[in-house]
């Protein structure tokens, strides 16, 4: 019995000492929408090397991250997939300044299947395409743009029954990658990321369907200069180049 | 001797009613508590052991006041030192026989208790390390009696101790109880609904009728009353 | 190999949750087991509420409760206590979320201990506390182990509540389930598999242990 207890305490101690939070080191925490994660991670790594500072990138849906920021989450910057949530945070006085647009994100129609000509909208109506996945338009900007696109091209009525709604754009990606659906609408920043480059075929939607990507600095006491510098870095020539490489457009 | 005079509200099949007991129990006697089920026999035991309090009454044991509702005296169960034996599960299942017996003894006195000797007195030699589930019903009751002896209880309360046992084992227990009563000057109270237990074992009987009783009667008187009852059937 | 800290953080959270819940669960379960009142059913329903409430709802309300935006959270913040997005925050969330998994088996066990175990012990001169420690608790060790293991397992798999109040912060609130979520979002399937397989192994071991315990219990009876 005593042996057992000693063993237990030893195990307990190991688990406890093994993960001490690193509270006291200077660190930037960047909250980002899932669609922007690949570009932001690259930007964070570069910035981290330049300024010798730890940068954590935290993922979530724009809506959930916004709720958390309103309730005091320790994030320093927030890169949303749209302007709506950054504006909401600004109106609630949670941000240093007005949101700025750091890039435009193009929605893309994406498929893994060679035989599907995604250039032709007519093909979406074809019975061989059983499902069309889009992100939930209620909280995902790429989903909203997809609906608008289908409506304006007058195919919405004939494909409505094929629509499958992903909880976020990540779920749409999974559906397409696993071939659970034949076609999905996702972000160009996803299909252009190093992980997915060359996988399947995509068609970019016209400029009018691009999504404005908003960023804000969150009001808190942590490293005011660094936060500003990170945003400046994203907007710099080098930052723009990375964003473009990851599938964003700069106007 | 134990003098009891109590009144307590109890729930019976006919609704709320009062249990009223007035009795005098002798030392060195085996007294049967007889009555139909629901008469309040177990409640009476709980009052004697201090596990339940009556609204009104007194309880005196020799020179000690155990209970006096007017003076607001109510000696806690722990200080009354009564041995309590139930119909089943009188022993703690997670203890061995030895541990069960030693549990009744204060820590500092444990080395003085010769468990093996106690066990031989109840014909249970060598059973120290058995667990209760490895014993028969009669053996459990014998260990419970050995525990009451280890506890040096002066009053032993037995609540239907034989009702789960075969006749043969019952008779063996009867003779044990009679021997111990003499040897250790015990006052033994036995709740039972079985007249055989009373005929074989008891010196006196407290008969509870309609939740009321005004005192014990000698065993002969009880026998006569029962015979009369049987003849009238 | 992916970073092991989410797994260790999950283990730490689950162990702490189980221990703390055992300590606060025992008196509560005991009180519930002896309480006789019409309000009991109401309190019991409240205790089991986390079983049916969606985790995100629990997380959301805890977030609101402890948010510095509100009086309660603000008061705590004034004392330097920050609950949301910290380890303490996910610990509190886990305590709420797993509460019924500890209290229900313990309450049931207290109710099943025959009253005369208590009574015999009293007549043998033992106090209520001594009886509890030496007689009652040893006779409900199955329930204690079951409660502990269920709480542990439930906390290991916790996701929605922690996501809401924890904020996915590495080394602080990013537990294994959140790491899997992040890796899936990042399309990093190999890392997601790595964490999933560890969680799966732990779950299988736990279920195996629970079944072993139940078998033991049957053999005892």
Task: Report on the architecture of this protein.
- The complex is a heterotrimer of chains A (251), B (233) and C (221).
- Chain A is of the alpha/beta class and 251 residues long.
- Chain A has two domains: 26-104 and 211-249, Periplasmic binding protein-like II (D-Maltodextrin-Binding Protein, domain 2); 107-209, D-Maltodextrin-Binding Protein, domain 2 (3-Layer(aba) Sandwich).
- Chain A has helices at residues 2-18, 37-51, 62-70, 84-91, 122-125, 141-152, 156-159, 169-177, 188-191, 224-235, 237-245; strands spanning 27-33, 54-60, 77-79, 100-105, 107-111, 132-135, 163-166, 183-187, 201-204, 211-217, 248-249.
- Chain A is globular and about 60 Å long.
- With 233 residues, chain B is of the alpha/beta class.
- Chain B contains eight helices and twelve strands.
- Chain B has helices at 41-49, 77-80, 97-102, 115-121, 137-150, 167-184, 195-201, 219-231; strands at 2-12, 15-25, 30-34, 56-61, 64-68, 73-74, 82-85, 155-159, 187-192, 204-207, 212-213, 217-218.
- In chain B, strand 5 (64-68) and strand 6 form a beta hairpin.
- The radius of gyration of chain B is 18 Å and the shape is globular.
- The mean pLDDT of chain B is 90.
- Chain C has 221 residues and is mostly helical.
- Chain C has helices at 5-34, 40-52, 55-66, 71-78, 87-112, 115-123, 128-136, 141-156, 160-166, 176-185, 189-220.
- The relative contact order of chain C is 0.16.
- Chains in contact: A-C, B-C.
- The interface between B and C is medium-sized, with 25 and 17 residues.
Q: How many runs of DSSP E, i.e. beta strands of chain A?
A: 11
CATH class of the largest domain in chain A: Alpha Beta
Radius of gyration of chain A: 21 Å
Query: What fold name stands as the CATH topology of the largest domain in chain A?
Result: D-Maltodextrin-Binding Protein, domain 2
- What multimeric state do the chains show? heterotrimer
Structural class determined from secondary elements of chain B: alpha/beta
Regions of chain B with pLDDT < 50 over 5+ consecutive residues? none
Indicate the structural class of chain A: alpha/beta
